[in-house]
Amino acid sequence: MPDVEIRTAMTPGKNLYTLNSKNEILSDIKVREAIMTGIDRATLSGIRFNGLNGYTEDLPGSFNLYQTQKGYEDNVGAVISFDPEKAKSLLDEAGWKEGGDGIREKDGKKLSMRYTLLGDSSISKAMATATQKMMKDIGVDLKVEERPVSDFSEITSKYDFDILPMGFSSGDPFGVAYFGQTYRSGSQLNRSGTGTPELDKKIDELSQIADPDEQIKKSNELEKEALAQYGIIPIFNGPTMVATHPDIANFGANSFAVIEVENIGYTK
């Protein structure tokens, strides 16, 4: 279209997968690690961003900070990476052996789980199908269970899921201040059921650090420990895209920026 410019920025939000550690199978940390190791986040991002004007982003490495922020580290990459063969080995170690149909078994029970899909978005369905294939490749029977979005509160409060795609946004650029909301056991954002009293104590100590740079440094160390609970993993952030006239200044995809109305206008 003439006289239209698409302005794009990374959305300050996280889309994630949550594993329910209260599930009998997923209560085993080795199984949770195997599931996360068997998820190809790059493929899922490709599905989500297909057709979005060529938008790409690096895989998110933190729930605290974004890739564009000072102090950001790829804490996810330090703990979890896509490796189907490693995932298979972890399941072997957990006692889940491959059956004749390729699905693993233990004590006569199939390694079967539910992927709870909220809503009827075609993109969400495509991501669910892709995840189902990834799990089959490592010997997991992943059944996609479709539920209405209105069931979200019931699903999370009752832990009525095994793998649940979720999302939340950041309203504050200093994400470290909300470390406890993300990782503390029993937090409303951490619906994985993971966490330990020892980790909760360290989170309390993190909040008492007065120097912001030192707090960020310590949070990167602690986040690696929290991610090693294998309860939540970020899949992608995603774009904010705004169409506007190219001569308009200070308007578009602002991320965390708050621009005063009087500073928005035509450049000529």
Briefly say what this structure is.
This protein is an alpha+beta fold and 268 residues long.
Q: Which percent bin holds the helix content?
A: 25-40%
Q: Name the shape in a single word.
A: globular
Q: Nearest-angstrom radius of gyration?
A: 20 Å
* Class from secondary-structure proportions: alpha+beta
Strand content: 15-25%
Q: Which spans of ≥5 residues are poorly predicted at pLDDT below 50?
A: none
Determine the mean pLDDT: 95
Order of helices and strands: EEHHHHEEEEHEHEHHHEEEE
**For the report, how would you describe the main beta sheet?**
3 strands, antiparallel
Strands ordered across the widest β-sheet: 8-2-9
Number of strands: 12
Distance between the termini: 21 Å
Count of alpha/pi helices: 9
Describe this structure in words.
With 268 residues, this protein is of the alpha+beta class. The protein is built from nine helices and twelve strands. It has helices at 29-37, 41-49, 75-79, 84-93, 122-137, 152-157, 179-183, 197-207, 212-227; strands at residues 5-10, 13-19, 97-98, 104-106, 109-110, 112-118, 141-147, 163-169, 232-236, 239-244, 248-249, 265-266. The strands form five sheets. A three-stranded antiparallel sheet has the order 8-2-9. A hairpin with a 5-residue loop joins strand 3 and strand 4 (104-106). The longest helix has 16 residues, at 122-137.
Secondary structure: elements and pairs:
Blueprint: E1 5-10, E2 13-19, H1 29-37, H2 41-49, H3 75-79, H4 84-93, E3 97-98, E4 104-106, E5 109-110, E6 112-118, H5 122-137, E7 141-147, H6 152-157, E8 163-169, H7 179-183, H8 197-207, H9 212-227, E9 232-236, E10 239-244, E11 248-249, E12 265-266
Helix pairs in contact: 1-4, 2-5, 8-9
